[in-house]
Give the backbone structure.
Amino acid sequence: MFSFIASRVLQAIPVMLAVALISFAMFAYVGDPIAIMLGQDFTEAQRARLVEELGLDQPFWVQFAHFIVNAIQGEFGLSYRLSRPVAQLIGERAPATLELAFCAAFLALLVGVPMGVYTGLYRHSWLSRFFLTFSLIGVSLPTFLIGILLILIFSVWLGLLPSFGRGDVVQLGWWSTGFLTLSGIKALILPSITLGLFQLTLIMRLVRAEMLEVLRTDYIKFARARGLSNRAVNFGHALKNTLVPVITIVGLQLGALIAFAIVTETVFQWPGMGLLFIQSVGAADIPVMAAYLMMIAAVFVGINLIVDLLYYAVDPRLRVGRGGH
Amino acid sequence: MEAALRRVFDSDLWWSFTRSPVVVLSAVVALVCILGALLAPLIAPHNPFDLASLNLSDAFKPPAWDAEGEGLYPLGTDDQGRDVLSAIMYGARVSLLVGFSATIFAMLLGVLVGLLAGYGGGFSDAVLMRIADIQLTFPSILIALLVDGVVRAALPREVHDQIALFVVIFAIGISEWPKFARTVRGSTLVERNKEYVQAARVIGVPSWRIMLSHVLPNVLGPVLVVATLNLALAILSEATLSFLGVGVPPTQPSLGTLIRIGNDFLMSGEWWITIFPGVALIVMVLSVNLLGDWLRDALNPKLR
């Protein structure tokens, strides 16, 4: 058990170091921080002092070590574009993105799992065929087009829901939430559907495939032979065993959700981290890009690690396999 | 020539192609898209880049079947009075150009890395595949965005504007090479231990020649499948980047650029400016995707 966890953590460290190296290389070699910070007129003495203050005269590896120490403390310097601390900028935008990603994941699970169970149980009904066709569309439509179509239908033609922004938000300490006002909740609906639709179809197809697989196994036949009700067999026995891979995929997709929030946030002008990132790419704002990259990498590596450990906890075969061979 | 044609029509691939109407239909649609894009200067009803022919009084005309539409502009016009259909045909040229180039770039890089890793083995294999694994953890659109952003920051503005098209191709290509590398490496590992490779090695053929002229032709089947599916993905990535405003330059609008520009007029009800390029994009991507799925199944002997 301990060696398994240790080996997974050890695997995660070089990945984070590699990403940190790329981020640092962006800092060090792209653009000239001195010219950006001093502006047009400066003396050689000013320049030399700043170089020393920033530690730019130190060897590469020493600078890299400083960068990592700062990054661990959440210190990424000032944004070139907005002249404010990067950590503060990201901290302000994080609640918007996280609430959006949470709603999208919640929606995908809440709708995707029942749809998957239904299509798995009643394979040939017309409703199942409809769901499957619908999922094919969900997979091949690009995210931004889904958003545009939803805006066209629900904002422009029907005038029911807002097409941009978060609505009114309530400040709870440093966290700003849209859950507590009506306009905030209304503003969440369209972006959540846009972001969650792809995951929804993915979960539906996965649950369907797993259900078909599990329903063929002997223990399901045996449960039926014992005279258990359909409901007990389908939900108590079958669905329970399909959930292991579903949990894995959902976990892994959480990271993708945060990444694809970039597109959704652009369509709906949602004031989150993705919109900040895309504005930074457009303005070549390296510190924000580097910080965002490090943060996304940490999220991905963290989720991968947790999923690996969950697998170990859920699937006894992993444990037996290690001892046996 | 006749013999070659007969070989094509007698092959298993052609047989399985003609058996599925969906596949034939998507091939036809894909062909129409590609021809429409290639021949745009010849067959497009208007030239959207010819400023002299634009007439502002024709701006915001709805599609032809609408009561206010005109037969001259079948899919309506945009804010400058440009014909939407012609803009789509010219935009598809850019989308397809970037899609094909990025896929070929990713393929060359991925095949090279895959051959080196699979045939070379050992340390280089471990390092190259570890890099590919790390990159595969992140969604490819994120990698493309990041590469695009770094190049944008590294180059002066004027230089970047001139080579923006190549930057997008590079960014998308870099984001997609690991899939090719993994596929080629897997097949190379199998081929490496076969007798014809051992025979070639025994008679002293140099490694690079074994890789290129003996192993490579035998691993190209799966590469073709990955390339087709990746073409659809590359077109989508380009559209997404351009929609986000960091893709191709506005002087060469792609379908994604058209959708982004049209999006500004969505709220005022001029939906056709953004929806029709979107439909064109979906039709193109869907047909390529269906072709890729078919190719994967047709080249897989287990499914026959």
In short: Residues 141 and 237 of chain B are 6 Å apart (CA to CA). The interface with chain A takes residues 134, 137-139, 141-142, 145-146, 148-150, 152-154, 236, 239-240, 243-246, 259, 263, 266-267, 269, 271, 274-275, 278, 281-282, 285-286, 289 of chain B (CB under 8 Å). Chain B is about 75% helix and 0% strand.
